[in-house]
Amino acid sequence: MSTPRTLFEKVWADHVVVAETDDTPAVIYIDLHIIHEVTTPQAFSLLREQGLPVRRPDLVLATLDHSTPTTPVSSFKDLLVAGEGAARQVRQMEQNCREFGIELLGFGSGRRGIVHVIGPELGATQPGKTIVCGDSHTSTHGAFGALAFGIGTTEVGHVLATQCLLQRKPKTLAVNVDGSLPAGVTAKDVILAVIGRIGVDGGTGHVIEYRGGAIRALDMEARMTICNMSIEGGARAGMIAPDDVTFEYLEGRERAPRGADWDMALARWRSLFSDDAATFDRSVDIDAASLVPMVTFGTNPGMVVGIDEPVPAGSDPSFRKALDYMQVETGKPMSANAVDVVFVGSCTNGRISDIEEAARILEGRKVAPGVRMLVVPGSEQVKAEAEARGLDRIVVAAGAEWREAGCSMCLGMNGDIAQPGQLCVSTSNRNFEGRQGIGARTVLASPATAAASAIAGRVADPREYV
Amino acid sequence: MKPVTRIASKTVVLATRDVDTDQIMPARFLTTTSREGLGDKVFFDLRFDGAGAPRKDFVLNRPEAAGCSVLVAGRNFGCGSSREHAPWGLLDYGFEAVISSELADIFRNNALKNGLVAIVVDEETHDWLLDNPGADVVIDVENTTLTLPDERTVEFELDGFARYCLVEGTDQLGFLQRQLDAIERFEEIRPWKP
Ligand code: SF4
Description:
Chain A is α/β, with parallel strands linked by helices. Chain A has 17 helices and 19 strands. In chain A, the strands form 5 sheets. In chain A, strands 5-4-3-6-7 form a 5-stranded parallel sheet. In chain A, strands 17-16-15-18-19 form a 5-stranded parallel sheet. Chain A has a 4-stranded parallel sheet with strand order 11-10-9-12. In chain A, strand 3, helix 2 (41-50) and strand 4 (60-63) form a beta-alpha-beta unit. Chain A is globular. Chain B has helices at residues 21-24, 44-47, 85-93, 105-113, 123-131, 160-168, 172-177, 180-189; strands at 6-14, 70-73, 97-100, 117-120, 136-140, 145-147, 153-155.
């Protein structure tokens, strides 16, 4: 009998080109390389300097997302909405892709969107693949049982030139979420609770595998939300073993295998799970039934409380600095805080089910006076589907803004920012100081909590709005 | 890449834990298409107030920080975004090394690939360094040791391959390119194709 292996170990072993030694890391083959305009220009410059081609342009998926405006774009002038630098960067990406023979899913393709939304949506993200992108939330794709992680620009150059990466084998961390989630508690609440539990560096050096009944019960989009924020717990990657939910999601998608290829792929995918006797370097257990809607109160995603729990006390200077920045008080629940801006979108919660979740609460209600709410679909396809279902009309009727696809206020690179001191309830993944604009205060939450907060004008419990 | 074998400098201490790469390099500066000139932008919103005036209380704005090339950082420095603009900025600003008790994975990778010596020391040494800003330290990359002002020498953690690349000034792409035969063979013989 072969040694029992974890899901991660199976996928890793399947991609070792040259094994690691004490002196050298492993050479790992990359099956899918996703690129966007912000973290690639310097990598293409390197190829140009060294006269190197892109070795496998057929394994590169390119799009524009980070510095694109969320207002309609049909000319260069429209790009300038996001600023001159951002516009130039988009143009540079278009030129790089042309020059190196890479297909770009750009404006007018109908397929443009946030890197981590379009990979799955096109069916390019598949179980058992190694997937990288110059973006830390590449962990999202692990929801399909892929080994997917973020890399820097130098490594983007390595993959473009060789289709491989030098990697040390990480350790494994099992996060078991058993039981069933109470009504009104979503995948976002689960992952925020996980990060609260393990801490923002709890996963450093590890690949997480999310397991247990509560994970199995989630649909693919919810699983993506979970894996997406693995990096917020310090882990490079998060994985979920593929199952029928995964296969059903993929079947028939544009870039998924078809016919006999599908059958062969499916047989292979069905072997991708952690063997019963496989061991993890560490494990953490979470009881799903005990979870409530979660919100962050500080300036990192590990500073999180239940919506009706008081903000905890802390004496560490970094903790106090975070509370000062956020202007929140120990001992009071987050619902004591008035809201200025609400953002629904990002690679964490910018998919169709997220927009639906927000729209269900917005329907027949109004965003509170003085609150600005932005709803930004994660991709052009999400946008089209939402519009086909009439969700855009619900959003607009509630008094929120319905925008073009992109990263938008998740990182505020394209001009979509909150003003200094404003409190923004956001469905994105990072509440770092200044992330959404200089001095902006971010509260991370689920789409339901974000929508409820927009209506209430303060941080609100979505369970009161269903 | 220039070889880096030894760094001798006074330290500058940024004790805050979990300093993320958005703090090190705010997103609005990522629209550049070059690696150059990011030193001016590093820690921008910590260094300058809304009106662009230097914040006097920020450690890098104090006179004693001038010329220091070793940054002692709080635990989990470099967490968050994978932006390599963070180590590019730190290097361009004049830092040659970052020391902490824990560094975020992607940041550490990015730093080492650019010749920024990102190293992890034990908690006790880290605490001492946090408590003693301006200490004269020597980082011996080849022997992976850090020498403190009282001549005490401690070992630090640094991957063997990363150390080799730093000391030789080798960039890792060259190493990968020498594996091209193996890569081609892998593509041919693997049982399934992506
Ligand atoms: S939505 Fe936010 S976290 Fe996701 S890829 Fe875009 S900027 Fe990064």
